[in-house]
């Protein structure tokens, strides 16, 4: 059974409170509970982790080696600034799907660039909390269809 890691970046602990017109009213706990149910349905194990600190997210990515077969990450604002997170994803070679609640390509120009996208197997954005669920489904599908060595 595949084990997957969901990483939530900075300010995602404020879901449901922070700019609900952009990010919705679901809390991070709501999202995690729904993800755990979906993971069960998809037949995978799931761990969820949130941090406002870049180094903690890098550590979580590095610690995923030999523990998780895939990562779903919402790097939050680190999407547009963190070479460190990008390099960690690249270094571990764990298939990663980048997700965002809002459509980052329709927002302020500084949000249009992602350091993560070039090292991710895909990016899903603009569907609110459904971006997470779509990302998890996409990652499971990807892992089921990766040719064996």
UniProtKB/TrEMBL annotation:
Substrate binds at residues 74, 80, 87, 101-102, 111. The active site is at 23 (proton acceptor), 100 (proton donor). It is an enzyme of class 4 (lyase). CDD domains: DHQase_II. It holds the Pfam family DHquinase_II. Pathway: Metabolic intermediate biosynthesis; chorismate biosynthesis; chorismate from D-erythrose 4-phosphate and phosphoenolpyruvate: step 3/7. The record marks 18 as: Transition state stabilizer. Its EC number is 4.2.1.10. It catalyses: 3-dehydroquinate = 3-dehydroshikimate + H2O. GO terms for molecular function: 3-dehydroquinate dehydratase activity. Keywords: Amino-acid biosynthesis, Aromatic amino acid biosynthesis, Lyase. Catalyzes a trans-dehydration via an enolate intermediate. Homododecamer. Belongs to the type-II 3-dehydroquinase family. This is 3-dehydroquinate dehydratase. It comes from Leptothoe kymatousa TAU-MAC 1615.
